[in-house]
Amino acid sequence: xxxxAQSPRYKxxxxxxxxxxxxxxxxxxxxxxxxxxxxGQGPKLLIxxxxxxxxxxxxxxxxxxxxxxxxxxxxxxxxQPAKLEDSAVYLCASTPDSxxxxxxxxxxxxxx
Amino acid sequence: GEDVEQSxxxxxxxxxxxxINCTYTDSSSTYLYWYKQEPGAGLQLLTYxxxxxxxxxxxxxxxxLNKKDKHLxxxxxxxxxxxxxxxxxxxxxxxxxxxxxxGTTVTVRA
Lengths: 112, 110
What we know:
A: mainly beta, B: mainly beta
């Protein structure tokens, strides 16, 4: 079974630029999560999708972050404009049943 | 949200047992998890325990849960160099959200 795929793996941008991350969850997994993991911290939930609907986006900084999950499969997370404090690893996870979340390798973002 | 605390570092000799501790605040937590993260990789689920259990053993891994003290521990028997990684405690609340600790970096020395 293929795991959760994410791209790109690494991204370096200047502050105020825009960036987008892509996630392809495990086939058949209805629930998809985006987490932000700042160096030295545990992952923090940004947004949760159930199929193509948003379940929880209470921790998403909506003035600069947006996310969508078209057709209930792939998802993109966008930051526009980026700030220095957005430097982190962005993890995507999916689950079929809310008990075990399967994580992708993450995208490491550096904002200069 | 849920507060989850872990010690940051653990150094252990190869072949010894490792014990990683975690405390949490939400007494209504249903599932408690241990994840492993190796450099450049995502999180890998090692094991989990349901809140009505005291202990769970899975090969070299033993999870102990003290619900009264809101304390969770992970014991790795016969620690190997491949066990060097960051270990995260995570707690699932009734709304199915996972809250993670900051992670414990385990270093295995020869």
